[in-house]
Amino acid sequence: MQNLLKAGLLALTAGLLVTGCKKAGIEANDQQEQSANSTVNTEAILSTFSVNWNNYADGVYTSSAAAADFGNISGWNDTRTWISGGTCRIKLLKNALSGAGGVIGNIDVSDGSAYELDYDVRFHSQFDFSRGGKIGFGFLVGDGNTGGDPGWDGNGGSLRLMWYQTDAGRVFFQPYVYYRDQPGEFGDTFGKSYPSSGSLNKGQTYHVHMYIKSNTGSNTDGHVQIVIDGTVVLDRAIRWTTNDSKRLIRQVSFHTFRGGSQTYWQSSTDGYIYYDNLYVHKIS
Which of 120, 151, 167, 259 pairs as cysteine with 145 (C-beta 3.0–4.6 A)? Predict the structure, then answer.
C-alpha cells in the first residue's frame, strides 16, 4: 500500500512539474510575442501627419523624438540633427558628401496612389552653396530609385528637390525626379528652376508644396507637381512605373546632403539648413 502511495505521489509531482514547465514555456512565448508586437506597434506607419517642432527645447533632435514625430523612420543621425528655435536644423559636414555629410532619412507611410506635402525651408545666413545638393522632403515610389539607379526597369521612382549653383554663380531650386521614362542615368530636372531668374537668398524662408499621383499599368496617367512660394515650378503627367505591383507611393524621403559624388560638390565649412511646418497627407 505504501509503495502504491509513493508511486502515486511521484506521478502527481512529475505531472505538476511538467505542467509547470509547459506553463513557463507558454508564458515565455507569450512574453516574446508581446515584446515583438510592442516593437511593431512603436513603429507607426502613418498616412497623414504634421510637425512644427514648436514644443521642443533647443538641443539634439534624437532618433526617438524623430520616430515619435514621423513614425517608422530609418537613416536618422543624432549627431547632425538639432532643434533650433522651433525648427529642425540639419548640419552638413565640411569636406563630406551624401550620407557621410548629411542625413538620408526615409519615412514609411501607408501605401497610397496619391500624396501631397508642404514644408518650409531656409538656408543659414552664412551657408556655402558650393555646387549643390539634395534638400527637403519628397516621395519614393515602389523601389524608390535614387542615386544613379534610373527607373528604367519600371519598378520605382522618386520625387525630390535640389539646390544647385551654376558656374556663373546663380543658385536655384530644381526638381530631381527618377521615373520610367527619365532620359538620363540621374534625376531629371525637366529644365525647370526656382526662381526662374536670379538666385536663392540665404536666410529667407521658402515654402515648398509637392503633389504626386501614381500611374496605372504602363499608362502615362500619373502626375507630378512642385510649387514654391506659390509659383508652379513643375506640373505634368508622368509614367512612374510599368510594374503595377510597384506603382504605389511607399515612403516620404527626408534627404539633406551635398552632392553629387565629385569633390567639387563639397564645402570647406559646415553648413546648416532649417525646416519647419511639415505637413504630409495621403489623398488616396
Answer: 151
